[in-house]
Specification:
The complex is a heterotrimer of chains A (253), B (287) and C (95). Chain A is built from eight helices and ten strands. A five-stranded mixed beta sheet of chain A has the order 3-2-1-4-5. In chain A, a hairpin with a 4-residue loop joins β6 and β7. Chain A is globular. The relative contact order of chain A is 0.19. By secondary structure, chain B is of the alpha/beta class. Chain B contains eight helices and ten strands. In chain B, the strands form two sheets. Chain B has a six-stranded mixed beta sheet with strand order 1-4-3-2-5-6. Chain B has a four-stranded mixed beta sheet with strand order 9-8-7-10. In chain B, α2 crosses α8. The longest helix of chain B has 23 residues. Chain C is an alpha+beta fold and 95 residues long. Chain C has one domain: Alpha-Beta Plaits, CATH 3.30.70. Chain C is 14% helix and 31% strand. Chain C is globular, with a radius of gyration of 13 Å. Chains in contact: A-B, A-C, B-C. At the B-C interface, β9, α6 and α8 of B face β1 of C.
Chain lengths: 253, 287, 95
């Protein structure tokens, strides 16, 4: 029998199909405004492409800020639980999990057996999450996928004064008018988000191994800044955006 | 290029009754805000002239321009002004200022003259910040907070919405009342997230005006939560650019149950007026 | 005067609050802050006054949430070093 984990995030829907602890199929799509419809059609698409019939799925568990959109799931778990469960199952040595998605940043401390000891959230403010990078990308006319690589080419340290994403957009425009190089601005933006995630992580405390999950783990410039901020190495999860969906799928196994 | 919907109008005004050449002390105040700059000139403490215009990318230039515009057609020049105080976000960039003073102090002092000394609570909603101030009968600050970290509750937040909905910012307030019933407020505080939420509401088929109403109401709720920290005491006034947005102002008054005082003056000049009043006190004190 | 230094954003209220009627500008709070966010300065909000007061430095006013987080003020029994250092109880915080 198959187990399905659905993570309905603020930006993307991620679904994994698992069997005996292995990921059989996975896919993602934009959450968009018809999130319910998009969640269902992504689910059907995955089953179809993996040649699995709905009756062979024994359990569907939903998570993510929009988990209600997965109305056909039998149960749902919190984002913190899903992140911790997914990360510690794949990386049993993990004591700290940092999850940075589109609209939320989380720092979770575990006891080494996957049990959550403490956690902190950066939520309801775009400054501490991927949305900040996305807003700046609009001002910079730089696709979010290229942010990491471009910022890695810079070794400048330009502090950003604005904390709010709306005000920071104006600051980025001023920097561009002042002929600041794009790569240097990209680095400043990554550094700004990383410093917020760093203080959140320092607040709950951290211990090795630290595993980074969520879409922002793909932004190499952000990862570098985070490592520098925490003054330690970080394990980058493979397919970082799917970890919480995996956590949901294997929950209560 | 797309039309910009969020610019405020520019204007100037001068008194017809005051003879400035009568030996009374002439002082000036310049408030260089993030969006607009105001200049005020007082003759013997009486309002003589003022102007309001957009702040350009060059703040010192904006300060000079706004003062020149206030003085236009009065026969007075900058040399006639004995003491000038600069205030606002760009206050360090007023080249002809004798001193700079925070906008918190200036707003309290300005509101004290504009609305009378019964004013105890001032809410100033500027382009890039939101200030909540309590003051005594002399216009001295007794409690304050200033939120310039977050765009929610500032003019900038409203501009983002005006832009998103392609509505001129001056019309936002009126339009927010053209709804059959008051919708629930937009739930996200963060402007970035509220924008996403609003886009979703439009896709659901909400009329533009209903979305505007939902945002005006969210903004009112947001600033009321800021006011709660300092406490609201009668009389209550709202100044700054958003004071012209009836959609927000009436909803704030409704939520806190206190009516806002009206003034014959332009509410946007409160900061510059306070600066000019401080200029007079400081000039007299020889500071 | 009550000076609320800080802000409120979508994620919460983050203020360091100084009561200038109690603060005499002694500066005992300044060295104990691990993030170095405090200073003693003139009263920016009353230009006619000559007294000094403790204040949050301007560059920290928009990031108190992050600057102050190492002091873990959300632990119920924990008193912030700046709050503890003030013998006049002039400093409080909002979270």
């Amino acid at each position: 029998m198959y187990k399905v984990g659905i993570d309905v995030g603020a930006k993307n829907i991620k679904i994994v199909v698992m069997k005996d602890g292995e990921v059989i199929a996975k896919d993602q799509c934009l959450a968009g405004f018809e999130t319910k419809e998009n969640t269902l059609s992504l689910y059907q698409k995955i089953l179809e492409s993996a040649n699995i019939s709905e009756s062979d799925v024994s359990k569907i568990t939903a998570t993510g800020s929009g988990k209600k959109a997965a109305y056909f799931a039998q149960n749902s778990i919190t984002e913190v639980t899903a992140a911790a469960k997914g990360a510690t199952s794949l990386y049993p040595s993990a004591h700290s999990i940092i999850d940075v998605g589109a609209e939320e940043g989380k720092s979770i401390r575990c006891d080494g057996n996957g049990k959550i000891v403490d956690f902190a959230l950066n939520e309801k403010c775009a400054a501490g999450a991927g949305a900040f990078i996305e807003s700046m990308g609009r001002a910079l006319e730089l696709p979010i996928e290229q942010f990491g690589e471009l910022s890695m080419q810079s070794d400048k340290e330009i502090p950003m004064n604005a904390q709010c994403a709306v005000f920071a957009e104006s600051e980025v425009v001023s920097l561009m008018h002042a002929k600041t190089e794009k790569k240097d601005i990209a680095k400043a933006v990554n550094d700004a988000v990383a410093s917020r995630i760093t203080s959140m992580t320092r607040k709950v405390g951290f211990e090795k191994d630290i595993v980074l999950i969520g879409g922002m783990a793909k932004n190499t410039g952000f990862v570098q800044a985070l490592k520098k901020g925490l003054e330690t190495d970080i394990i980058l999860a493979k397919d970082p955006e799917y970890i919480s969906a995996i956590g949901a799928a294997i929950y209560n196994d | 290029m797309a039309k910009e919907f969020w610019r405020w109008k520019e204007y100037n005004w001068k008194s017809e009754n005051i003879n400035w050449n009568n030996g009374a002390i002439i002082t000036g105040g310049v408030d260089v805000g993030s969006v607009s700059s105001q200049a005020v000139v007082l003759v013997g403490g009486e309002l003589f002239a003022y102007s309001s215009m957009r702040t350009g990318s060059d703040s010192p230039m904006s300060a000079v321009n706004s003062m020149n515009w206030a003085l236009e057609g009065t026969g007075m020049t900058l040399e006639n002004i004995k003491y000038v105080v600069g205030t606002g976000y760009g206050r360090v960039n007023v080249p002809f200022a004798n001193k700079t003073i925070t906008e918190i102090a200036c707003h309290a002092r300005g509101a004290n003259l504009m609305y009378g000394n019964s004013v105890r609570t001032i809410l100033d909603m500027g382009g890039q910040d939101c200030k909540a101030i309590r003051c005594d009968e002399k216009g001295k600050v007794t409690n304050f907070l200033m939120n310039d970290k977050c765009a929610a509750g500032t003019g900038r937040g409203m501009e983002v919405f005006a832009d998103l909905l392609s509505v001129p910012i001056e019309d936002v307030g009126e339009l927010s009342f053209y709804v059959e019933e008051e919708p629930p407020p937009v739930s996200s505080t963060c402007v970035v997230f509220a924008k996403t939420e609003a886009t979703g509401l439009l896709r659901e088929g909400w009329h533009k005006n209903k979305v505007i109403a939902a945002y005006c109401s969210a903004m009112a709720h947001r600033v009321v939560s800021l006011l709660e920290r300092i406490g609201v005491e009668d009389d209550f006034v709202i100044t700054g650019g958003i004071a012209k947005n009836v959609g927000v102002v009436r909803r704030i008054a409704k939520e806190i149950g206190i009516k806002t005082l009206e003034t014959e003056y332009d509410s946007q000049i409160a900061g510059a007026l306070g600066a000019a009043l401080f200029a007079r006190s400081l000039a007299e004190k020889g500071k | 005067m009550i000076a609320n230094f800080g802000y409120k954003d979508g994620s919460g209220d983050f203020y360091i609050i100084i009561d200038t009627d109690k603060c005499n500008g002694c500066g005992d709070c300044v060295p104990v802050c691990p993030a170095g966010i405090l200073e003693v300065r003139d009263n920016e909000y009353d230009p006619m006054a000559d007294d000094l007061m403790a204040a949050v430095k301007e560059e920290f006013r928009k990031k108190i949430k992050y600057s102050c987080s190492p002091c873990k003020p959300d632990n119920i029994d924990y008193t912030l070093p700046c709050v503890k250092a003030c013998q006049f109880d002039a400093i409080t915080h909002s979270w």
